[in-house]
Structure formats: structure tokens, C-alpha cells
């Protein structure tokens, strides 16, 4: 059994009914934390997922729908959680286009969901964390929070912004028992990425192995995907006593991407 290092804590993870967010939520639950998972949908299967996690790990798990593109929803999520010791700002979307053709509505949505939502949730959660003398804010950035790629202007801008927001939050919370850091994953094998592989195989007329090695992981020197479980483990570390003095920084989990 996993060590229950987070027993008695409540974690709120945005964008967590699949992919990286779900991996983080599972890691927290395994470590004994009660968890609030979230997405913008309100389907029976979302609430069933929360019940399944609760049964699997023996902790309290709730699903709270909230649209991370709306500031009032972001703040309501924190209020409805009724306690937030650990906040993970993970919700995000992507769109790829040359700058001059980038749809304005896509730019606005990416900035709202990937960056502005973290401002709202952090502002809502921070006072109680300070009052309690302990808190962990973890922002899921990206290798693109530290470097750039063409055709991803909104995503890169938002992720650079998340890194900056993490530093400011850490400085403002310094000495209060609250830390803030950004995790910067490389290419993570999520259901969404897995679903892209067949299309990439057709587009490039490549085998699955070649698409992964030559297209998806071309900038990841390890030649391996990061896993959601690895990101979850990193998040649990940032909530451990070993990370009490880790704040205002980035942790790259990118197979060497940003070492290039």
C-alpha cells in the first residue's frame, strides 16, 4: 500500500476527469488525500468516476463541474470544495495555427483556460491556505513554458505566463507555509495523444513506431513518453515535507527536452 502522506488533506485538481489531471488525482488519492476532480461537463460518468476513485482508494472524492473559461466558475469551484489544502491548476486546451491566421476566439479561450483560470482559483484558495499555515499550489505548465515551438502562440504564451504566475505566487506566499511551483511536462501519453497517432500515421505515411519517434518525440531525447503517473508522483513529492523549501521554481519532467 502507498504511504498515506497526504491523509487529512483535500486536493482540488482542475481538468481532472482524464489525462494528466486524472493521473495527479489518482496519485493524491493513493497518498490518502481527499480529492475534488473537475471538468466542464456534468455527465453521470463524471460523478461515477469520482465514486470509483473513492472506492478504490478509500478516500472522499467529489466531482464538481466548472467551466475554467469563466472566472466566476473558477472561484465557485474553490468555494464548493469546502476546503482546499492542495490546488493543482491543470486545465488546458491547445490549438495550432500560424500567428496571422490564429482565430481570435481560440486565442481568448486558451488564455482563459490555460492561464487566467489559475489566477482565479489561486486568488480564491490562497487566503485559507495562509490562515491554516500550510498549502501547496501546483501549476501544470509545459516544456512550452520554458521554450517555444512554431504555430502554438497562445499555448506557449499561456504556459510562459503560468511559470511567471507561479513565481509571483511563491513570493507573495513566502514564509506562510504555502508553496507554489510549476511542473513542466514534455510529451505525455494521454488518451488524447494516443488518439492522435492513427491520424499522424496517415498524414505522414509512417508506421506507429516512426510517428512516435520521428514526429511526436522528435524533441524528447529520452525517446519515451512521460506518463501521467510520473506527473502524479512529482505532484505528491511537491506536497511532501521534503519539498517544504521548494517554491517559486519549475520542475521539468520532459525526457531531456529543455536540456537541448
TrEMBL record:
InterPro entries: 3-OHbutyrate_DH, NAD(P)-bd_dom_sf, Sc_DH/Rdtase_CS, SDR, SDR_fam. One of its GO terms (molecular function) is 3-hydroxybutyrate dehydrogenase activity. It comes from the Bacteria. GO terms for biological process: monocarboxylic acid metabolic process. Signal peptide: none annotated. Its EC number is 1.1.1.30. Gene3D superfamilies: NAD(P)-binding Rossmann-like Domain. It holds the Pfam family adh_short_C2. PROSITE patterns: ADH_SHORT. Keywords: Oxidoreductase. PANTHER family: 3-OXOACYL-(ACYL-CARRIER-PROTEIN) REDUCTASE, 3-OXOACYL-[ACYL-CARRIER-PROTEIN] REDUCTASE FABG. Belongs to the short-chain dehydrogenases/reductases (SDR) family. This is 3-hydroxybutyrate dehydrogenase. It comes from Paracoccus suum.
Amino acid at each position: 500500500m502507498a504511504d498515506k502522506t497526504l491523509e487529512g488533506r483535500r486536493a482540488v485538481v482542475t481538468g481532472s476527469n482524464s489525462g494528466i489531471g486524472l493521473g495527479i488525482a489518482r496519485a493524491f488519492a493513493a497518498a490518502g488525500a481527499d480529492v475534488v476532480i473537475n471538468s466542464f461537463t456534468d455527465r453521470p460518468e463524471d460523478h461515477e468516476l469520482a465514486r470509483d476513485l473513492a472506492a478504490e482508494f478509500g478516500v472522499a472524492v467529489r466531482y464538481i463541474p466548472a467551466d475554467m473559461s469563466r472566472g466566476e466558475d473558477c472561484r465557485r469551484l474553490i468555494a464548493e470544495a469546502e476546503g482546499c489544502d492542495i490546488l493543482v491548476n491543470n486545465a488546458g486546451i491547445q490549438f495550432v495555427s500560424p500567428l496571422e491566421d490564429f482565430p481570435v476566439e481560440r486565442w481568448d479561450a486558451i488564455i482563459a483556460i490555460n492561464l487566467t483560470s489559475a489566477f482565479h482559483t489561486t486568488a480564491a484558495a490562497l487566503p485559507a491556505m495562509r490562515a491554516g499555515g500550510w498549502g501547496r499550489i501546483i501549476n501544470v505548465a509545459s516544456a512550452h513554458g520554458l521554450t517555444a515551438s512554431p504555430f502554438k502562440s497562445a499555448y506557449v504564451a499561456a504556459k510562459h505566463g503560468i511559470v511567471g504566475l507561479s513565481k509571483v505566487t511563491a513570493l507573495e506566499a513566502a514564509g506562510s507555509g504555502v508553496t507554489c511551483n510549476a511542473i513542466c511536462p514534455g510529451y505525455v501519453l494521454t488518451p488524447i495523444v494516443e488518439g492522435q497517432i492513427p491520424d499522424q500515421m496517415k498524414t505522414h505515411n509512417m508506421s506507429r513506431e516512426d510517428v512516435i519517434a520521428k514526429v511526436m518525440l522528435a524533441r524528447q531525447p529520452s525517446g519515451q513518453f512521460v506518463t501521467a503517473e510520473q506527473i502524479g508522483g512529482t505532484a505528491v513529492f511537491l506536497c511532501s515535507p521534503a519539498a517544504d523549501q521548494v517554491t517559486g521554481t519549475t520542475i521539468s519532467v520532459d525526457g531531456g527536452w529543455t536540456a537541448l
